[in-house]
Amino acid sequence: MDDSCEPVDQSDDDKVGLKKSEMKKLLECQVCNQIFITPFILHCSHTFCKKCVMEYLRKNKKCPCCEKMIIKPPAHNRHVCLLLESFTPYLSEVETAMLNLRKLEHQQYFEEEFKKFENMVKSAQENGTKFLNIERRWSTEEKRIFRIGLERYEGRELELYCNLTGFSKEFINTSLPPALIIAARNVDAQIPQSSQTGINYDLLRDILRDIMTS
Q1: Where exactly are the transmembrane stretches of this chain (predicted)?
Q2: Is the dihedral of CA 16, 22, 28, 32 positive or negative?
Q3: How many CA atoms lie within 13 A of 66 on its CB side?
């Protein structure tokens, strides 16, 4: 038998090193190719760093891995967070230092983004206007500003935040198709198509509700 086909005995240290490298590979973001920082999951089940996926989705509407169309905003992947917590103690001092530096960079990035968002809301309140109006077409920058709030809030706070723009359950339930299309484009929602009737407005309303309550 060819010796190259024989199993090779491994020391315990080798096995631990192999398991560590395998686990590290599973916990790497496919956008930056580094260990996840605040893992967020898409509805297609692929996970990325929050910062990586948010920046990616500003220019792209498909998953970086499987290229499926993204119809819902990414959500916090708490399961992967738990895996990270159990894995990071096994990192070397250098790896831990690099990870902490990246965490700080990501934190500063979102703090700066949120400050821009707060300033925009404050300015609108001082002028007695909505800081954005869901029924008006938004610029790329306005879409980016709105998404900062989507990323920051959850539950009831998220719903109240959306209501600041007029993006409410009542709006979704009662608006005519043209207004729903504008709203969907403003929040970067996928517009579902039906082979028989064109746009599926019932499904579009469901997608918009999911964005408000995710």
Answers
A1: none
A2: positive
A3: 11
Alpha-carbon distance values, 50 to 42, 54, 107, 122 (Å): 11, 6, 11, 26
Structure-block tokens of residue 168 = 């409410």
Asked whether residue 63 is domain-assigned, the answer is no
110's tokens: 């979102």
User: Could you list the pLDDT tens digit for every one of the 214 residues in the chain?
Assistant: 344 333 334 344 444 454 777 888 889 999 999 999 999 999 899 999 999 998 888 788 889 999 998 877 788 899 999 999 989 888 889 999 999 999 999 999 888 877 777 776 677 666 655 678 999 999 988 888 888 778 777 777 788 788 888 899 999 999 999 999 999 999 988 888 877 778 999 999 999 998 887 6
Question: For the chain, what is the domain count?
Answer: 1
Domain ranges, residue 135: 130-214
Q: Is residue 211 part of a domain?
A: yes
Strand partners, 33: none
